[in-house]
Write a structure and sequence with these properties.
heterodimer; A: 120 residues; mainly alpha; 4 helices; rod-shaped; B: 182 residues; 62% helix
Chain lengths: 120, 182
């Protein structure tokens, strides 16, 4: 850049020249080129399948478990144990024995009382 | 003003727009702040935003009007926004911008004149500074300035003459004698 503003001080430089030099001096030289930013990988929107696959897998596992339980329960019905004892025990677990009490034997009037020490 | 296709542009097309309008954006922001570095930062931020808009496929019919509007907004927000500190990009993104340092001693007198001129420019209305910047930084004529700022060419001419006259008088008051004869 020339220094015409300084050199022409005596000759009263033109205001246009001063302004032109000033504004052009402010501009970046060389003019910067635009640098495109690196492509940032945008997060792809999740598909319906990928979003719910975990939940679907869990639901399938639960359904399989229930179906298996029901199927196996059909092969082994309750109350048909080998001796029936087990079933009987199971039915009475946690219950009091409600069998009727044995009546006390009535005293025998013909019976001779045994002498006691006081009778002697 | 021309309108461009609405499809996302290729980089070459974008660079063409940058080459055509980036100086205008810089001049507009410079006229607001009288700071070349701020103007450069905001100019780059403006085009970065335009680039992102294009990448996302946004419909920008008139890129020139778009960047000028965004640059004006950024310039106004500069004082109060976080952009003043970091912009929307990490600070190191701007590291490639070269400064304008290294002034030799023989340029000190010129710098003094420029300093006085800068002070006087600060007293002008921002609209007058816009006209002066476009006229003297970009060598735009009256009609080009009028088209860009969307004002009357006669008004541009009058304001340009008035601003030039005022500057000449104030510089003369400070001992910097300049001619204002056209």
């Amino acid at each position: 850049m020339s220094n015409s503003v300084i050199q022409n001080d005596e000759a009263r430089p033109d205001v246009d020249a001063v302004l032109g030099e000033f504004f052009k001096a402010q501009m970046p030289t060389p003019w910067p080129a635009f640098k495109a930013p690196l492509q940032t990988r945008l997060k792809r929107p999740e598909s319906y399948w990928s979003r719910y696959s975990g939940r679907l897998a869990l639901a399938a596992c639960v359904a399989l478990f229930v179906a298996g339980y029901i199927t196996l329960a059909g092969f082994f019905p309750r109350g048909q144990g080998p001796s029936g004892v087990q079933n009987q025990i199971e039915n009475h677990i946690g219950q009091r024995d409600k069998s009727p009490e044995q009546p006390k034997p009535a005293p025998n009037p013909d019976a001779v009382p045994m002498p006691t020490e006081f009778d002697r | 003003m021309k309108s461009r296709p609405k499809k996302p542009a290729h980089q070459a097309e974008f660079e063409e727009i940058y080459e055509r309008h980036s100086r205008e954006v810089w001049a507009l922001v410079y006229a607001r702040w009288l700071n070349a570095d701020i103007a450069l930062d905001i100019m780059q931020e403006t085009f970065l935003r335009l680039w992102k808009q294009w990448q996302e496929g946004s419909d920008i019919v008139n890129p020139r009007a778009w960047v000028l509007r965004v640059a004006r907004n950024l310039a106004e927000d500069h004082a109060k926004s976080a952009f003043r500190r970091f912009g929307t990009q990490p600070p190191q993104t701007m590291n490639g911008v070269e400064g304008r340092d290294g002034l030799p001693l023989d340029g000190m007198a010129r710098e003094e004149t420029f300093g006085q001129l800068r002070k006087e420019l600060e007293h002008l209305a921002p609209a007058d500074r816009e006209i002066l910047t476009l006229r003297y930084a970009l060598d735009y004529d009256t009609s080009e300035i009028a088209e860009m700022l969307e004002i009357n060419a006669t008004a541009v001419h009058m304001r340009l003459s008035r601003a030039r006259q005022r500057l000449a008088e104030r510089l003369a008051d400070q001992g910097v004698q300049v001619n204002n004869e056209q």
